[in-house]
């Protein structure tokens, strides 16, 4: 019985990769230093896993930015617009980062590749772009280099590659009407070339990540799987091929896997879908080893050994121990690095910390489970089992878990609390009279750049080096400057800038009961962007106002409208580590009631526009369409709980980013937000295809420029994008805004971009007048 890992966090335990990457982008460090820091992180990760006792340690799970982007570079799938950089002999790193972030320098103005969510996680990947005349070639030897690098340390790793079929399915067809699965014929020779080089270095196992095997597949896609793995296995009979699935069960594709795929091992996620084990054991032939993903790779709760052992023992009854592997459910990319770094009562209450496990601890759990499964009699491991049982007993009996007042309030939610008093048509008339906004009203999504000075004030305040009064005075100065500047460029609806907020979820969690926080619990969201998700361990309750004072202060500085800015319940749920001892829907409603109270108080204090951000609504959608209805019912109900407390005249906004809307457009309309703003610019308004045949009833602001890259848009391209939007949305329903919040951008690019955006809106109004 072997242990293995699917992937380890690559940011470094204290975000070393983030820091050196951003220094490299700003010119403060060299590529040599960047490469060395990356190498240090890789070697630390490999040696740590070796010391813990993992038998099959992954390589090529590290990335400087994104593993899908790495794969595109490896197979030479570089979009045509970057060919000028290649012809001018730009370095590999500069081409790589240009694809991820865009490139705007000297005579170049190249837009970044599209970015979207990795299945139902908060991780973003760079979407491959495919063309009808697409050719592939071995462009980067990253996977080979890193296998050799680990071998030099004395570790024979299991290289991880995105499986050929999943790689193709992750991408988008561009400039042509063709079936992207046809490209596999050209892609497979490059995979073969990569594997030949790995075989020459002595590789024994290769892990192909094929998460699409947990999703609904067409007959053509199923045939593609058959053909691809027939070719790979027949070409490399001595290499052990593992297919890794995760985030869903493989039951619907089990016949395909068991009967038609020539592979040596299958990994299944028994955390997200434990029900699949029975059918898999009945169907999977003995020739295919079975990897049991029993340790949760996506949440931070300690594994319940008794439950995992039951799954392992059930497997042992059906097959030989030598054909079983024990592993986390998925890559530990989605987990923080090391719980041992969390020290002191002021960080996490000690008894709550006893319920938790981060990536390092999860790998220890994998090893302990193997030992318990093989030799239960050993005292060392029996003690660990007893301690584990006691931790879970303590958690179930903890006074922190349940708040009866909150439970009663959730159980008594009425129909009135989930519906506005009047239809949007009536509300819109009243809001137009009340708010007096022009056509194509301009606004931002909420946050403004958080400079080093702002972060430094927060750091000093938390360290006790600044008093609360001094800290608040600094924040007020930032808000004054932001309001003055927004008035100067003539934005229509202003924001206070969110300078007091460390993160759009963490900020609210810090002020709600039932949340705990870590110091080093960082996970990667995209590129160098890391987030520190709150931990929801008990009933959620709002004890006091969270945003009212700052919003009211900002509104007092201007006669223009200032939006109240809130994070919605679904996003707080999705972007937190959520308690796993009650249904997520119940926790979401608890959060919704807390946000509802904040909305009500904002309105009572004169705030006429309130934005309740829900960028994670689509992200939370189950991967199987048969499960959508149940999720959307409670998720949309939770949003409506937050929004229905206001008068008709109060305008409710929501924001969503990186979402494909076509398949849930009816449900988004059911949210009944007065205005929805969405990410559209990287896809060049392609996301608005969802609105082609659906007459969306409310107002919409399609994002007109990409805030996830430093590139500055010009006025004419924003006007062009809004012209595209007008093909789908009536003019009177359109707003003009960026894709997302501006927290991660610099002030110079923010100022230039927003000036171009405001000028574009004014041009559109002139055009509209001329049309009339």
Structural description of this entry:
- The chain has 772 residues and is an alpha/beta fold.
- It has two domains: 2-10 and 53-81 and 112-396, TIM Barrel; 404-771, TIM Barrel (Alpha-Beta Barrel).
- It contains 27 helices and 24 strands.
- The strands form seven sheets. Strands 1-14-13-12-11-10-8-2 form an eight-stranded parallel sheet.
- α1 runs antiparallel to α2, α18 runs antiparallel to α19 and α23 (584-604) packs parallel to α24.
Furnish the topology, listing elements before pairings.
Layout: E1 2-3, H1 16-25, H2 31-52, E2 58-59, H3 67-74, H4 83-87, H5 92-101, E3 103-105, E4 108-110, E5 115-117, E6 124-126, E7 129-131, H6 142-152, E8 158-162, H7 164-170, E9 172-174, H8 184-200, E10 205-209, H9 219-235, E11 240-244, H10 254-260, E12 265-269, H11 277-283, E13 289-295, H12 305-318, E14 324-328, H13 350-353, H14 359-374, H15 379-396, H16 404-411, H17 424-435, H18 452-463, H19 468-489, E15 493-494, H20 506-509, E16 512-516, E17 523-526, E18 529-531, E19 535-542, H21 548-555, E20 561-567, H22 569-574, H23 584-604, E21 609-613, H24 628-643, E22 651-656, H25 665-671, E23 675-678, E24 699-702, H26 715-726, H27 747-771
Parallel strand pairs: 1-14, 2-8, 7-9, 8-10, 10-11, 11-12, 12-13, 13-14, 15-20, 20-21, 21-22, 22-23, 23-24
Antiparallel strand pairs: 3-4, 5-6, 16-19, 17-18
């Amino acid at each position: 019985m072997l242990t293995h890992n699917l992937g380890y966090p690559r940011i470094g335990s204290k975000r070393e990769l983030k820091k050196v990457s951003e220094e490299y982008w700003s010119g403060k460090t060299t590529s040599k230093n960047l490469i060395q820091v990356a190498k240090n992180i890789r070697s630390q990760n490999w040696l740590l896993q070796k010391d813990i006792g993992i038998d099959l340690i992954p390589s090529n799970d590290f990335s400087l930015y994104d593993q899908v982007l790495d794969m595109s570079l490896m197979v030479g799938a570089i979009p045509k617009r970057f060919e000028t950089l290649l012809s001018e002999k730009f370095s590999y790193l500069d081409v790589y980062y240009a694809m991820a972030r865009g490139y705007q320098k000297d005579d170049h103005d190249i837009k970044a590749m599209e970015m979207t969510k990795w299945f139902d996680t908060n991780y973003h990947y760079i979407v491959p772009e495919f063309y009808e005349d697409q050719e592939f070639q071995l462009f980067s030897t990253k996977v080979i280099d890193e296998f050799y690098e680990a071998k030099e340390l004395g570790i024979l790793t299991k290289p991880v590659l995105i499986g050929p079929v999943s790689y193709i399915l992750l991408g988008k067809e561009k400039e042509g009407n063709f079936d992207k699965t046809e490209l596999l014929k050209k892609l497979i020779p490059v995979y073969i070339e990569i594997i030949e080089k790995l075989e020459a270095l002595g590789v024994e196992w290769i892990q192909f990540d094929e998460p699409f095997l947990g999703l609904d597949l067409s007959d053509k896609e199923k045939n593609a799987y058959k053909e691809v793995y027939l070719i790979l296995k027949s070409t490399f009979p001595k290499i052990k091929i593992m297919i890794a699935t995760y985030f869903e069960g493989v039951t619907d594709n089990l016949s395909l896997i068991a009967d038609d795929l020539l592979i040596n091992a299958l990994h299944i996620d028994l955390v997200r879908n434990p029900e699949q084990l029975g059918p898999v054991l009945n169907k999977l032939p003995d020739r295919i080893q079975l990897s049991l993903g029993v340790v949760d790779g996506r949440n931070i709760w300690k594994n319940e050994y008794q439950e995992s052992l039951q799954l392992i023992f059930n497997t042992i009854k059906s097959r030989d121990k030598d054909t079983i592997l024990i592993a986390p459910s998925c890559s530990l990319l989605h987990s923080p690095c090391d719980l041992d770094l969390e020290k002191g009562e002021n960080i996490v209450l000690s008894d709550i910390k006893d319920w938790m496990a981060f990536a390092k601890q999860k790998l220890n759990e994998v090893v302990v489970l193997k030992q318990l499964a093989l030799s239960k009699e050993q005292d060392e491991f029996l003690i660990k089992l007893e301690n584990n049982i006691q931790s879970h007993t303590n958690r179930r009996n903890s006074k922190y878990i349940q708040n009866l007042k909150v439970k009663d309030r959730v159980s008594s939610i009425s129909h009135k609390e989930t519906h506005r008093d009047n239809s949007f048509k009536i509300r819109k008339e009243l809001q137009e009279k009340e708010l007096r906004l022009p056509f194509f009203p301009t606004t931002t999504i909420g946050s403004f750049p958080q400079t080093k000075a702002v972060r430094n004030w927060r750091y000093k305040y938390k360290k006790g080096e600044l008093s609360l009064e001094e800290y608040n005075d600094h924040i007020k100065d930032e808000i004054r400057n932001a309001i003055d500047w927004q008035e100067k460029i003539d934005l229509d609806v202003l924001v206070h800038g969110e300078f007091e907020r460390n993160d759009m979820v963490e900020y609210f969690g810090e002020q709600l009961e039932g949340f705990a926080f870590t110091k080093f619990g960082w996970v990667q969201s995209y590129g160098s962007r890391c987030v520190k998700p709150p931990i929801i361990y008990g009933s959620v309750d709002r004890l006091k106002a969270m945003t009212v004072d700052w919003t009211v202060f900002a509104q007092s500085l201007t006669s223009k409208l200032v939006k109240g800015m809130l994070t919605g319940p679904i996003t707080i749920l999705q972007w937190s580590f959520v308690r796993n001892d009650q249904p997520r829907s119940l926790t979401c409603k608890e959060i919704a009631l807390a946000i509802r109270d904040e909305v009500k108080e904002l309105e009572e204090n004169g705030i006429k526009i309130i934005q309740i951000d829900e960028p994670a609504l689509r992200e939370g959608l189950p991967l199987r369409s048969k499960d959508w209805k149940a999720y959307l019912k409670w998720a949309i109900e939770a949003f409506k709980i937050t929004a229905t407390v206001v008068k008709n005249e109060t305008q409710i906004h929501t924001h969503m980013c990186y979402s494909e809307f076509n398949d849930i457009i009816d449900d988004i309309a059911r949210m009944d937000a007065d205005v929805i703003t969405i990410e559209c610019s990287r896809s060049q308004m392609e996301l608005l295809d969802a609105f082609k045949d659906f007459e969306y009833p409310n107002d919409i602001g399609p994002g007109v420029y990409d805030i996830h890259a430093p590139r500055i848009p010009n006025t004419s391209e924003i006007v062009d994008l809004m012209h595209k939007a007008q093909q789908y949305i009536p003019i009177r329903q359109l707003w003009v805004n960026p894709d997302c919040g501006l927290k991660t951008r610099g002030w110079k690019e923010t100022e230039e971009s927003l000036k171009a955006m405001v000028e574009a809106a004014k041009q559109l109004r002139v055009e509209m007048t001329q049309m009339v």
